[in-house]
Amino acid sequence: MKVFGELRYTPAKAEKGYTDRILRIDLSKHTISIEEVPEEMRQRLVGGRGYCLQLVFDGTNAETRFDSPENVLALAGGPFCGETAFVGTGKFIAGTISPLTDTFCDSNVGGHFFALVKLSGFDAIAVTGRSDENVMVLIDGDSGRVSLQEAPSRHGSLLEVDGRLEAWKGEGQVRNVAILTSGKGAEHTWFGCLNSIYYDPKRKRGRAKQAGRGGTGTVMQAKGLWGIAVRNNRSKSRANLPADTERLRKAGNSLRGVIREVDPKAMRMAWQGTTSLIDMMNASHILPINNYQYNQSEETVKISGDVFEKEYFEQGVPDGCFPGCNLACTKGCDAHVLGTGPHKGKKVAVDGPEYETAAAVTNLGIFDPDYIMDYAWYCDEYGVDTISAGVTMSFLFESYEQGLLTEEDTGGLSLRWGEPEDVSALFHAMCEGKGFGKVAGQGIRVLKGWIADRAANRTGKDRDEIIEELSKFGMECKGLEFSMYGTKESLAQQGGYGFALKGPQHDEAWLIALDQVRNEMPSFAQKARALNWFPLFRTWFNLTGLCKLPWIDVRHPEAQFTEIPARNMPTAEYYLELVNATLGEERTIEDLLFESEVAYTLHKLINLRQGFGTRQEDAIPLRAMAPVYMNEFLSRKEYYEKYLAESASMDIQGKSDEEKLEILQTYRQLQYEKLCDVVYDAKGWDQDGILRKSTLMRLGFHDPKYISIVDEARERVSKQAELRKSGSKLAN
Prior knowledge:
This protein is of the alpha+beta class. The protein has three domains: about 5-230, Aldehyde ferredoxin oxidoreductase, N-terminal domain (Aldehyde Ferredoxin Oxidoreductase,  A, domain 1); about 265-475, Aldehyde Ferredoxin Oxidoreductase Protein, subunit A, domain 2 (Orthogonal Bundle), CATH 1.10.569.10; about 490-730, Aldehyde Ferredoxin Oxidoreductase Protein, subunit A, domain 3. A seven-stranded mixed beta sheet has the order 1-9-8-13-10-11-12. A six-stranded mixed beta sheet has the order 3-2-7-4-5-6. The protein has a two-stranded antiparallel ribbon with strand order 14-15. Strand 11 (about 195-200) and strand 12 (about 205-210) form a beta hairpin.
């Protein structure tokens, strides 16, 4: 293959979890360089998500968009990424200015890719520029060479992955090669994902994990980058060179012991993966159905975790996505025959599906496990986010149901709930960038305006009124589509989605199980406190190269005896041991929370700089809080009447169903606004959702560039308030 640029180097070995090197690739100039991690960056931002935030903040500006040449596609593990003596350490973060949100968005992904990058001497990769020719990067940690080469094909493809892994293994083992790439759908939609592909020697095939959210794959495609391949045949064992190996090993063994004891009796992730959540969410009225209109169905029995365990997932093969993890939740099917789409009849291997993927299909009214498997595979093959793709289609189906979208608009596509053929036609049109699919692939925020324009021209109705109606059930916030949990009955999760800095993604504050399933935070005050603590501790995992599931989904038996069982502090102590054993320090949980708050605040500052990040952007759709239409209300009428009378202390005697629905909607909206007031104050923000200067000072953001971002945001909000007072539509 043609080589556009090459760099010879001596790989730096990790010491106490860090190599202290950043690999920079400029695709416009076809140059490759290595720089040291600044000491302040390492001390304040830890790694992973923190490094991605700093690289994107420094490399972009308020005018940067996803396809701007200066946009940074940042990839980073953390100090514990690749540590085989502990559990769930294959994770890394991909961060960038997102096509969907127009501000920083990051996604957490597993596999072997970044562990091999770290073995090859790098804590982070920063890709900038835009190549006119389709290129790929090859990091050869064995020979100490990084090269920028002609891409092997137009798009990355799962169908060719095993051959690529074999071709690039060099003289070593194929399991020591990994690829980060994307597919055709990432070029044609704004919610393209990255496939982190590695070889599984037990299944004897390539497997893929995804950085799904926010359009990271779309950014990769916009840069003309086919992907990044890395090979390194050094042993992964002790590659991080921790300060105290024995202390670390003891903590890892303790956590593995908890997983062995608890998982078989609880989530059964080692057998069902995250499909085990399907039954739990359905039983608790959380599973999204027909664009979150409903949250429970008797048909769910067809797609339960038991069904996937017994009929689809290959059992008896350890399925951890990185050595050292016995949670083994990376389930898959090695021989599935596709029943739909352009590859109908082809036998393929399917990784997953995850809960989110299955729920994206129920949200379209389909309860067919074969179709779920098809959808999972095609999303991976095309390189698109299963969540955003599914929720965008659900929004379009309801817009069609409401008469706001017609077959004239869709180019003849009919959009009917529960019809796999209708879903497939729209899905493949999106991923191929054909006809109406090209518009649909830009996500809900763009589609609301597009549909409103068409509907206004067709009906003569006011465009703004149509957008207002679409916004009631358009399940996006900050431009990102909601992940797959119906939040009508969980105020805590409403806040978890609304306050999430990247948009409504559960990895920042997944509180719905604690709130709605376990009922461990029944009071308003408990929910508000949780929305300050949990986002900080959960996002700490993203700083460090760790998976959250062993902490949040496998509760330590001793946690029930602690003050706040939901925090699972006995397991959190194992993570603290990992930190101190690796770094040779004695940090506390409070130290970890402070580190996370610093990174969290830098993300908030990027949002503010890009023109977002205020209370206005934390608004969530009405359906996230309450039923929008009468059919939803009537489906749980007795429940809502009891709720209004007992929980909300409302007098509903003699009220019509229409009046009860309006009362419910108003009450839930007021509760959410009250939650904003309380949580903002706890986070150190003012009532407009803007950082207080005292918060900046406490966290060490003294530089005038940070203060000016806050000042400009406050001035922007003030001007918007004046426009609203004058009745100007420009305020919106």
